[in-house]
Q: What sequence folds into this?
């Protein structure tokens, strides 16, 4: 796999747009596209470093080098997620939270809003996410609806072919997707823990 293909793979896994990655690196989205397609094969190392930082990876991962053992830096903070109405899933790399040996988590998102306060997840909390595309009935997950993301408890109604995204606050109504509408819903990962207010 080329460096460009590796960049594309991790960018898509983390739902980072060409525009967002370009802004983080200081180039246009067209230039990022050229990196990924191989039109620009010799990517400057400072750009590799900036891309890796935005994706929460060591540069050696993008370059395909073997990595020496080193202490984990922690879980990358990949952006903010709404606990109310779904919002556009624009992620912004913003450092790390401390690693945990007890929890199997891949990244963390900062919660916005108050719709999950019944689960003790408040505005500003860091929610640790284990990346997976399916959760059990009743589990809390980071969910994408079209190109928008939200944090909700997920329920399945197999009989009526429904997916229900339920808040943990009686002020808010659940989002219900029936039949073909259910294809709009994509599970990004399961919430495994939270850390109270990052700010």
A:
């Amino acid at each position: 796999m080329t460096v460009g293909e590796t960049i594309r793979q991790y960018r898509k896994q983390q739902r980072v747009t060409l525009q967002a990655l370009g802004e983080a690196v200081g180039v246009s989205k067209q230039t990022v596209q050229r990196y990924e397609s191989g039109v620009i094969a010799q990517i400057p190392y400072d750009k590799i470093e900036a891309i890796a930082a935005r994706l929460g990876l060591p540069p050696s991962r993008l370059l395909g080098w073997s990595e020496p053992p080193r202490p984990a830096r922690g879980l990358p903070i990949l952006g903010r997620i709404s606990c109310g109405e779904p919002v556009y899933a624009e992620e912004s790399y913003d450092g790390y939270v401390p690693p945990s040996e007890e929890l199997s988590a891949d990244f963390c998102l900062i919660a916005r809003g108050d719709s999950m306060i019944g689960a003790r997840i408040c505005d500003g909390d860091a929610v640790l996410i284990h990346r997976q595309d399916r959760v059990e009935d009743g589990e809390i997950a980071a969910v994408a609806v079209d190109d928008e993301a939200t944090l909700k408890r997920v329920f399945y109604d197999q009989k009526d072919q429904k997916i229900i995204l339920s808040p943990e606050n009686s002020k808010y109504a659940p989002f219900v997707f029936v039949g073909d509408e259910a294809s709009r819903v994509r599970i990004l990962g399961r919430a495994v823990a939270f850390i109270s207010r990052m700010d």
Notes: Residues 66-71 have pLDDT under 50 and may be disordered. Residues 3-13 form the longest helix (11 residues).
